Amino acid sequence: MKKIKMPDTFVIIFFVVIFASLLTYIVPVGKFEMQEVTYVTNTGAEKTRNVPVPGSFSYELDDKGNELKKGIKIFEPGGEVGVTNYVFEGLASGDKWGTAVGIVAFLLVVGGAFGIILKTGAVESGIYSMISKSKGSELVLIPVIFILFSLGGAVFGMGEEAIPFAMLVIPIVIDMGYDSITGILITYISTQIGFATSWMNPFSVAIAQGVSGIPVLSGAGFRIFMWLFFTAFGVIYTIFYARRVKRNPESSIAYKTDAYFRDNFKSEEQGNREFKLGHKLIILVLILGIAWVVYGVVKEGYYLPEIATQFVIMGLLAGIIGVVFKLNNMSVNDIATSFRKGAEDMVGAALVIGMAKGIVLILGGTSADTPTILNTILNYVASALSNMSAAFCAWV
């Protein structure tokens, strides 16, 4: 019997686009009325925000008074969104502060910066040095890294910022005998656990509490308990999964795709993993740089443009140190080529983000006061949840 092959991500997105396009012929468009509310952030600053007025949803009507349906065309000129426009329009939408163009630029820039850092070999050498000193107890590193990234998600909303760290950690955990899924679990998934149970995330919890008119950081005790519980659950599951993969590497669904990293690390000489002075300086740059990122996000409100630039600075400093100390025989040109290679590795993820944004555009976009079928769908969901218990709605 022929084994069913999982379709490519691009294929899945394409069929979602087709489905979303069909919905535009079935679901009428609607909108919400908006109101401006004032709230206080966790830093004490007063800000304003436009939010939908509860119960204000209304359908857009045509000339005959019927609910309007805006069926999307196959192709739209003039910068409009058609079915086949979803890739470009998705990639080009937004601004530098968010989806999609901002996140795409962020991924490419940060990917390039980490390309330079990885070229120096500092991270690999540092982790291998730590592993050798741990005398076979490298499994201890998994909960430590998991907890740190979960804390990042809880404290300052770490999410897409974890992607470059996943790029860095995955080759390491594969060489330790685990797989890329383990690397994703201890970096990205852990941040999502922290994000979901956060008690102080300035980009979600603090804003939502301020807009709702309740004290900022209220309910922190319960939220911290939830963070501890779910982080512990995530750590236990990850350790269980990692042990299973290490016992039988072929049991991993990522076994074949991880072959590149396994072969790459096997081809390296152990002598190249010596933890030299230059490596230590680069690790110091990384530690100080990450501390700077955390400070900037929490205290100064830094977001994608600033964070990307911070990583560029880290990458440049790492590259200069690599050239000065001849790490991996680096030259000035290697700084440029490794930046380009790091950015290239992120192109696939960048395209996925753009395509996913294209789906949202086909549904009409995210403006609550503009008639779209996305607003109608959200109103359907809200109406369905209105008769549910508050606890159930909170979980949903």
UniProtKB/TrEMBL annotation:
GO terms under cellular component: plasma membrane
Pfam families in UniProt: DcuC
Keyword annotations of the record: Cell membrane, Membrane, Transmembrane, Transmembrane helix
Entry keyword Transmembrane helix: yes
Main location: membrane
Membrane topology note: Multi-pass membrane protein
Cell compartment(s), UniProt: Cell membrane
InterPro entries found in the cross-reference section: C4_dicarb_anaerob_car-like (IPR018385), DASS-Related_Transporters (IPR051679)
Membrane-spanning segments: 9-27, 97-118, 139-159, 165-187, 199-218, 224-242, 277-295, 307-325, 346-365, 377-395
Record-given protein name: Short-chain fatty acids transporter
Species per Swiss-Prot/TrEMBL record: Fusobacterium vincentii ATCC 49256
Organism phylogeny: Bacteria, Fusobacteriati, Fusobacteriota, Fusobacteriia, Fusobacteriales
